[in-house]
Amino acid sequence: MQINDDWPGYCVELFNYPEHYQGDLECVYIPHGVIMNRIECLARDIIEDIGHDDMMVLCVLKGGYKFCCDLVESIKAQSRSTNRSLTTRVEFIRFKSYMNDQSTEDLQIIGPEDLSVLKGKDKVEILISSQAIVDTGKTMRALLQHVNSFQPKLVKVAGLLVKRLPQRAATLPDYVGFVIPNRFVVGYALDYNEYFRDLNHICVISEMGKQKYKM
Ligand code: HPA
Ligand code: MG
């Protein structure tokens, strides 16, 4: 689903959102209900493609936690309603690279997440890496390299947001929620210096918000 460059977003005052962010938002870019409906579509596509096996979902923290949770719930609900048997398991991994709204050079894998479950006789069939945002594709490349070193049988990537950049990421996720303009967005677990994760809608920050939470 494409969101055009000239999409102004919705007026913030039409929505319910945490009072402590009053004045900090320029617009509601993607309302929570729209996100949820789009995730149902991704879950349906994932089940149609690979829904007959055990699935491991690798959640990319912190920004991907809501997307991962809602995606897994939707996969479970839809496979139940179509009487498919499917087990889901969730593991977590964390990268850190953003300061304010700028990407920093080095990308660290944080946390001793043990992915050896991907190896050996109890090897899971399918790995879906769920990432909230793909812009340069740097995180996705590092993640795939890391994950592939554990030799899973099949890896698919689901990304909620893909940014339209002049030099577009060479590899795109297999399942994409929204292709958006190159704007910094927050909410639905995406942060600006750890703020705004508790906002359900995906929003654009106002100048006041940027100044208020600058590091
Ligand atoms: N918002 C929050 N975190 C991000 C973004 C964004 O637009 N792009 C990359 N990390
Ligand atoms: Mg961040």
Automatic annotation (TrEMBL):
Keywords for this protein: Glycosyltransferase, Transferase
Residue ranges of domain Phosphoribosyltransferase in the record: 37-192
Keyword Transferase in record: yes
Keyword Transferase: yes
InterPro entries referenced in this protein's UniProt entry, alphabetically: HGPRT, PRTase-like, PRTase_dom
Cross-referenced CDD domains: PRTases_typeI (cd06223)
Classification via Pfam families: Pribosyltran
Record's GO cellular component terms: cytosol
Entry GO MF terms: hypoxanthine phosphoribosyltransferase activity; magnesium ion binding
Gene Ontology BP term (one): guanine salvage
Matching PANTHER family: HYPOXANTHINE-GUANINE PHOSPHORIBOSYLTRANSFERASE (PTHR43340), PHOSPHORIBOSYLTRANSFERASE DOMAIN-CONTAINING PROTEIN 1 (PTHR43340:SF5)
Name this protein carries in UniProt: Phosphoribosyltransferase domain-containing protein 1
Lineage, top ranks: Eukaryota, Metazoa, Chordata, Craniata, Vertebrata
